Amino acid sequence: LLDRPRDHGPARFAARHLPMKKRLGILLSGRGSNFEAIANNIDTGRLEAEIAVVISNRPEARGLEIARQRGLNAVCIPSKGLDREVYDRMVVAELRKHQVDLVCLAGFMRLLSAYFVREFNMAILNIHPGLLPSFPGLDAQHQALEHGVKVSGCTVHFVDEYLDHGPIIVQHAVPVLEDDTVETLAARILVEEHQAYTEAIRIVLSGTWRLEGRRVIIES
Ligand code: GRF
């Protein structure tokens, strides 16, 4: 009995039939720290997914360089001078080529067209450095300080065709301190962003949520 060759049949069968990891497409325009946090969480097993492609509209984006260094598919599709939908069709084609299931905007400085939003219906996420619906758009941390709020934070939400507008999945709050500058507040928020994005991706990929009006109800 001991001499019998080990039977690898069932194990091989199981390996072949493991559920496919969901494939993320990351869109960024700059630094890419949120992308890096997601990639790190995948590498350490905190997030079950894989990054299929990283796309930037800016060739000089640091995030693109980091993606290349990590051996990921890194693609630059420059947006300068292109009509919004023409550009979005190119990006969607690239995402399809890499069989992306979920699109994650991570500092992608462009509004998406209705076409893009329809193509990836409820499958596009964005992160914003403020507690939406307060302070949408650029310089959210500056807006928060100027307004004098005592609490700020970050929001991960589904993307629709309006700016920083779709249903909210996760929010993390941070205090605004008396001696905060835009830089210190942004840094405190960024720490939370790096956790909140992974949490939101995990929720969305698990499928244990439903939409009631604008509310994303997470089923436990
Ligand atoms: C983050 O503050 C994010 O909330 C906002 O753009 C910034 C991108 O930073 N949408 P990074 O490129 O991920 O470091």
List cofactors, ions and other ligands.
Answer: 5-O-phosphono-beta-D-ribofuranosylamine
Fraction of residues in H or I helices: 25-40%
How many strands, what sense, and barrel or not for the largest sheet?
A: 7 strands, mixed
Task: Report strand order across the widest sheet.
Answer: 3-2-1-4-5-6-7
Backbone structural class: alpha/beta
Look at the structure and give the mean pLDDT: 93
How many separate helices? 7
Number of strands: 9
Residue windows where pLDDT falls under 50 for at least 5 positions? 1-9
- Our estimate of the beta-strand percent is 15-25%
Shape: globular
First CA to last CA: what distance?
47 Å
The SSE string, one letter per element, is HEHEHEHEHEHEEHEE
| Rg over CA atoms | 20 Å
